[in-house]
């Protein structure tokens, strides 16, 4: 048993449980990818299978883990989130498995770990890829035998815990590199759910944006705030390296700084307006390249123009999208393949949108 020394500290749950979001929170998503995930989540929630959530930072892994818990027979039990990556190596085992008096310097009494705390509920092991290899061995034993041994204890205790783990890493590569145990990998990976980055389900951006705007403006007691068409267009075209979290934060930021009844482009974080992220059809060449086969409304007003002077200030997100698709198609002379690529959506999605909006490719 490893004996760790660290200064005596008040170990009463210091961990990362503060600032937790409320347990229940809606998951928004209309894209086929998210719809598939919703179906998968409700199916696996009914089982006790271990679930491995894989996705970039901010794609909603924790939200999905909570949702699995809430839809499961364990929903009345505890949901215990553990950020494995944030726990110091010297503490991780005592935090997870607990300890008995004298197990290490500072272990003054018997204490249950997080695994025991999750008894009857769900243990969410976030950033599982960061778990030290010797801890992985103990976790595997716990998962296989449904029992836990506190540090320094001879006896084991029976636990009934469902594990949901998450990682942004390629665990298979970690296995190949010898940093992650293969047996644990297979034990965790009974059901794998891949959360796609936001840029691969762009159809969700508008929906998420309105959801967050609604929530943030209610919180700020500024109900009725809306996006200007320019702000909406910038939101729609951005890349979102930080995924949904970045969109959520951007909108909170915008709500905090917006002065009028509309969120203007200028209210969004600067990175949304960075020229390098703007595809080339916006800007000086805007009107020159347009195919005469498609007539377009006037180009967007500059972000600094007063929203009142812009006739499109009252447009919905869908109207902005319709116009943008039309514009991009015109630029690509009706070529759906290259237009879809620029829009960051699949050709099938583009076809669907064309049908939905009653649009035709030029030349059709
Ligand atoms: N589909 C969604 N609908 C609504 N909110 C979402 C959605 N996806 C993510 N969010 C919100 O985005 C933020 C990030 O989500 P979450 O913490 O679940 O991501 P994560 O994948 O665990 O990220 P990290 O790897 O950085 O921990 C949260 O505030 C969450 O509520
Ligand atoms: Mg997370």
Automatic annotation (TrEMBL):
Keyword vocabulary terms for this entry: ATP-binding, DNA-binding, Nucleotide-binding, Transcription, Transcription regulation
Positions of the Sigma-54 factor interaction domain: 27-256
Pfam family name, one: Sigma54_activat
Single GO term (MF): ATP binding
GO BP: regulation of DNA-templated transcription
SMART domains per UniProt: AAA
Matching InterPro entries: AAA+_ATPase, AAA_lid_NorR, Homeodomain-like_sf, HTH_Fis, P-loop_NTPase, Sigma_54_int, Sigma_54_int_dom_ATP-bd_1, Sigma_54_int_dom_ATP-bd_2
Descriptive protein name: Sigma-54-dependent Fis family transcriptional regulator
């Amino acid at each position: 048993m490893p004996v760790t020394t660290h200064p005596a500290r008040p170990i009463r749950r210091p961990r990362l449980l503060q600032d937790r979001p409320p347990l229940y929170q809606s998951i928004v998503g209309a894209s086929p990818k998210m719809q598939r995930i919703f179906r998968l989540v409700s199916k696996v929630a009914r089982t006790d299978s271990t679930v491995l959530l894989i996705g970039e930072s901010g794609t909603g892994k924790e939200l999905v883990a909570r949702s699995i818990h809430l839809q499961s027979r364990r929903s009345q039990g505890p949901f215990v989130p553990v950020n494995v990556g944030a726990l110091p190596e010297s503490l991780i085992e005592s935090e997870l498995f607990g300890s008995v008096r004298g197990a290490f310097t500072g272990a003054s009494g018997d204490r249950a770990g997080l695994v025991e705390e999750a008894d009857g509920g769900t243990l969410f092991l976030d950033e599982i890829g960061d778990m030290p290899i010797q801890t992985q061995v103990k976790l595997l034993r716990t998962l296989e035998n449904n029992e836990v041994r506190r540090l320094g204890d001879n006896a084991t205790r029976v636990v009934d815990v469902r594990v949901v783990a998450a990682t942004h890493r390629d665990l298979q590569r970690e296995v190949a590199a010898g940093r992650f145990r293969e047996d644990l990998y297979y034990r965790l990976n009974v059901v794998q759910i891949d959360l796609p980055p936001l840029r691969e389900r762009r159809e969700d951006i508008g929906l998420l944006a309105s959801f967050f705007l609604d929530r943030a403006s209610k919180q700020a007691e500024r109900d009725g705030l809306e996006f200007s068409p320019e702000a909406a267009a910038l939101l729609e075209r951005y890349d979102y390296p930080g995924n949904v979290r970045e969109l959520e934060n951007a909108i909170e930021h915008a709500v905090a700084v917006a002065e009028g009844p509309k969120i203007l482009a200028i209210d969004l974080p600067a990175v949304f307006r960075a020229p390098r992220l703007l595809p080339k059809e916006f800007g000086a060449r805007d009107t020159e390249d347009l195919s005469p086969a498609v007539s377009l409304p006037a180009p967007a007003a500059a972000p600094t123009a007063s929203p009142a002077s812009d006739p499109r200030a009252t447009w919905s997100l869908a109207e902005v999208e319709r116009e943008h698709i039309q514009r991009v198609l015109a630029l690509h002379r009706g070529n759906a393949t290259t237009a879809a690529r620029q829009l960051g959506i699949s050709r099938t999605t583009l076809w669907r949108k064309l049908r939905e909006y009653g649009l035709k490719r030029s030349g059709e």
